[in-house]
Amino acid sequence: MLKELILxxxxxxxxxxxxxxxxxxxxxxxxxxxxxxNQRL
Length: 41
Fold this sequence. Notes:
Blueprint (H helix, E strand, L loop, with lengths): L1 H39 L1
């Protein structure tokens, strides 16, 4: 029982980490675009 729980948590957190890094990448790209647009104005 405990082993399954640990495995589940490991999967869950690795998935969460991927989603988080994906969100961070999107945010960085968005920030870059904003900077780029601000420089052009």
